[in-house]
Design goal:
With about 250 residues, this protein is α+β, with helices and mostly antiparallel strands. The chain has a three-stranded antiparallel beta sheet. It has a two-stranded antiparallel ribbon with strand order 1-4. Helix 5 (about 80-100) crosses helix 6 (about 110-125) and helix 7 (about 130-145) crosses helix 8. It contains nine helices and seven strands.
Length: about 250
């Protein structure tokens, strides 16, 4: 069983490290730390969830697949189901990103684009920052409902701890077929993709919440693949004077 689960994938962190070491700025106190990739951007049992709650989160899969009830119960009877699913996605992403670094033609490859979307989508909602925002919403909602002496609300687990509500909502955002489909349609309809090459002496940097605006769907996003390479997602409907990427035919 995995104890320390990364909310920033380890393979991704390693691309911005040197000999397994990575430097990080704590913006709250301005201090810079130098540590091993293995020790950063992780939290114990971050994606682990009770199988009964997991069954509720993944219930839509039973409606759209041929999986039997016994097979579904067997698959979801695993508190680390989400951690393992993310690990498989990371392995596939690591392989394709490594190929992309040497073959930019993959920007037009269907498999690469599908994995790229799944990776950036999950990365936008799997972080500690996203969890904290959900927890803050849950705390305020629970507090407000209880202040009104409300004891039960349909579709809101008022009896649960806000921390648990936040985890359930976060894992639903990660795994939901409906959420992934809706975001996928938005991604491929709203964005033109460009390859950004950094030929300066300064490396591209990442944060512990590298795709915080991706969920909005109407702003440009620069997603670093490594310190010298990025994929830029530019909104198709932006006015020409606001576009950061323009094709120049020579």
């Amino acid at each position: 069983m995995v104890k320390g689960e990364h909310y920033l994938p380890r393979f991704y962190l390693e691309k911005f490290s040197k000999k397994g070491k990575i430097s990080a700025l704590n913006i709250s106190d301005g201090k810079i730390i130098h540590t091993n990739v293995e020790k950063i951007s992780k939290k114990n049992y971050f994606y682990d969830i009770d199988p009964e709650e997991l069954k509720k989160i993944l219930s839509e899969y039973k409606k759209f697949t041929n999986i039997t009830s016994s097979q579904f119960d067997e698959l979801t009877n695993d508190i680390q189901f989400v951690e393992k699913a993310l690990s498989r996605l990371e392995d596939k992403s690591a392989s394709l990103f490594a190929k992309f670094e040497n073959n930019f033609d993959l920007i037009n490859d269907e498999e690469f684009l599908s994995i790229l979307f799944l990776f950036v989508h999950t990365l936008s909602v799997r972080t500690m920052s996203y969890h904290n925002s959900l927890e803050n919403i849950a705390e305020q909602t629970t507090s407000w409902l209880k202040s009104l002496k409300i004891e039960k609300v349909e579709n809101y687990p008022l009896d649960k701890n806000p921390k648990d509500i936040a985890k359930i909502n976060q894992l639903y955002e990660i795994t939901s077929l409906a959420k992934v489909y809706k975001k996928g349609v938005s991604f491929f309809n709203n964005y033109d993709l460009y390859i950004g090459i950094n030929d300066t002496d300064m490396d591209l940097l990442i944060s512990d919440n590298p795709l915080m605006y991706f969920m909005l769907g109407f702003n440009d996003v620069c997603f670093p693949i490594n310190p010298k390479l990025a994929i830029i997602m530019q909104v198709k409907t932006a006015k020409k004077e606001f576009k950061i990427c323009n094709l120049v035919l020579v």
